[in-house]
Amino acid sequence: MSVWELLLACDMDQTVIPNGKAPEAPGARQRFGDFCADGRVQLVYVTGRDIGLVEAAMAEYHLPTPEFVITDVGAQMYAYDAQTGPKILPDWHAHLAQGCPPEAFAGIDHHLKAWAVLQPQESERQKTFKHSYYVEPNADMPPLVQEIKTHLAHLGLPVSVIWSFDDAKNAWLLDILAREANKLDALLFLCERQGIGRSERVFAGDSGNDLAVMESELASVLVANATDSVRAEAKRLAAKTGREASLYLAENWGENLGETDLDHRCGHYADGVLQGVWQFVPAARPLLTQIGADFSWME
């Protein structure tokens, strides 16, 4: 048997959690769990959720237990044990503090008081290196975000500003984060911490806030249920950076073959993740075949 190891980093919502509009193939999460149960796989969840919402999703959707969890869009990092649960990694906090002193970051609420449209999110959503706000749904976000970025830059605060729309809450979400508190920098830090080489890591995601990882050197999978706009932007960014070979767009191969039965070939959610692993980690193909995720006809 080929010797291989893999750090598999996955976004959660609409990547391994089937909570988008596309249907999930029967047995998808079972196949994903069977793959991640192999001792050669280190599973990492990389998500905008906080750790409480991560654990709730793991229970509700019967997701496999990870070795690590990167939460709050990169602001928090945990080692995870099936028996004892999450344990925060202080070295990631220390790393963030070097570039963005916590006392300076703590004053962001004060600096943003002039923007009355910003409503602070619940206290549990606020972290040492993450301040989060709601904005009413009819707000014109691009100029608002640019104003805030410019203001914070003039103050010399090393931060980034991320925004997205929450359909369930019918509101824009705006996050101010320490500059390195993002999915890509957190993943690179974890890979270095764990001694994971370039050929031993794969990231999977579905949305715009995953694009920074997908245009990086990390081998990345965009699941087939991603929107057409995200797929187009992922391709554009990969072409711009010359990293097309590091990006795999999962496809609904069953549909392409004229078949209507939904199975592991659909590329949605967890099955799309495994399709990407087949592409990037040839040594893992015997295991994938064993668990019912054979993509040999793609070759």
Structure commentary:
β10, α8 (211-214) and β11 (219-222) form a beta-alpha-beta unit. α1 crosses α11. 41% of the residues are buried. With 299 residues, the chain is α/β, with parallel strands linked by helices. Helices cover 35% and strands 20% of the residues.
Key traits:
four-stranded antiparallel beta sheet; 35% helix; alpha/beta; 12 helices; 299 residues; eight-stranded mixed beta sheet
Secondary-structure blueprint:
Layout: E1 6-10, H1 28-36, E2 41-46, H2 51-61, E3 68-71, E4 76-81, E5 85-88, H3 90-99, H4 102-105, H5 108-111, E6 119-120, E7 130-135, H6 141-154, E8 159-166, E9 171-178, H7 183-194, E10 201-205, H8 211-214, E11 219-222, H9 228-241, E12 247-249, H10 253-256, H11 269-280, H12 285-290
Parallel strand pairs: 1-2, 1-10, 2-3, 10-11, 11-12
Antiparallel strand pairs: 3-4, 4-5, 6-7, 7-9, 8-9
Helix pairs in contact: 1-11
Report a brief summary of the structure.
By secondary structure, this protein is α/β, with parallel strands linked by helices.
Mean pLDDT: 92
Distance between the termini: 20 Å
Strand order of the largest sheet: 5-4-3-2-1-10-11-12
pLDDT < 50 runs, ≥5 residues: none
